[in-house]
Amino acid sequence: MNSSTAWLALKSLEGGIQLTTTHAAEADRLSSELTSLLNEWGLASAVQALTLPLHGRQVALICTLRPDFRAQCMPGHDTLALHEKLGRPTQTDEAWALEREIWVALLGSPHRFQFASLDSLTSHIRVRRNMALDARKTALAFKTDAAERPQTYWRDGGDEAGFILQPGRCLVDALIAATQPDATGRLYDFSCYRATEYVILLGIAQELQSENPELLAQLQSLNEIHAVRSGQFHEVYLVEYGSIEAPLPGRFYVPGDRLWFRNPDERSSDVTGYEGSWVIYMGGGLFSNFWKRDTPYTLESKAIEIFHWKDGAYTDAQGALQMDETVVEALVAQTEANPSARAQVLERMLRMRDPQGVYAEGGCLDTTREYPKSVSRGHCELVLPNF
């Protein structure tokens, strides 16, 4: 990385990775360490760096992809084909390729990701890697009005506490047992929102096993008393980036992102569980499909499925709205087989969503993504609640 040649290019960029330090000399050292680290993924020559003064004595080391490399690998911040354009060197495993994809997506991001240290950055990348790999292994039974967990590891603490750990059971093992049928041979009942929480929590806990065991012990104790769910889960564990005012590009995703696809049809969005769809971006252009693990979604296939939810909605004998998945599947297959119809559906759906409560011309794409807070030992952002 060359700081002087990067100045003009970086001055016009808002994204990439920022490491904050207290001295310029520290920034130089970090730049050197980061170059050595990026060499492990063959990326050092693709990155440019700039040191900028901040308030007081603080300085920032800002790192981003060189414009030519970004234009080649993720034009318009499109990361969905990044894995293909990067290629896959021989004798590398799935985790290695995934970490490299995360590095490139972060460095080429239109959003600037800020980290307090290099250790915090590398921990963040490992958590994202864990989440993406765990999402690839996750398979569940879709239930919006029921929930089930392996009783060896979990017990029902009631509506207030939720499912809590059996005393003395390992949190990592319990989360794997609940979400990965390869471990138990069974599928357990989940909503898509709760399923993403388990995958995120598992990715965090796996990182803590080696990097911050003290925090893992606290997390273990918390889950033996009370589950952190829904809005509180978001507040405790996650950082949201992007906004309605500054939406993220529609094809920009970093492996380990949690995101929401909105159902833009007012009637079918009243079917419980079909208001939208929460997923994890797993890298490689694929989004989690917890109900059919072997057929993960592409951006296009997810948009087409959600489009046809309007056709699968019906009112049952009790007057309640329900969803007929067989109708949806049949119409998805028809649309996929008809290039003209497919293009029309995607033109409608691959737009930014309307604001909450509005059902007009918006599509299914959200303006934001979510990722876990830092859990590195030296710069931990995660503060667990008391119950």
UniProtKB/TrEMBL annotation:
One Pfam family it belongs to: TGL
Keywords: Sporulation, Transferase
Entry's Gene Ontology BP terms: sporulation resulting in formation of a cellular spore
One annotated GO molecular function: protein-glutamine gamma-glutamyltransferase activity
Protein name: Uncharacterized protein
Organism: Limnohabitans planktonicus II-D5
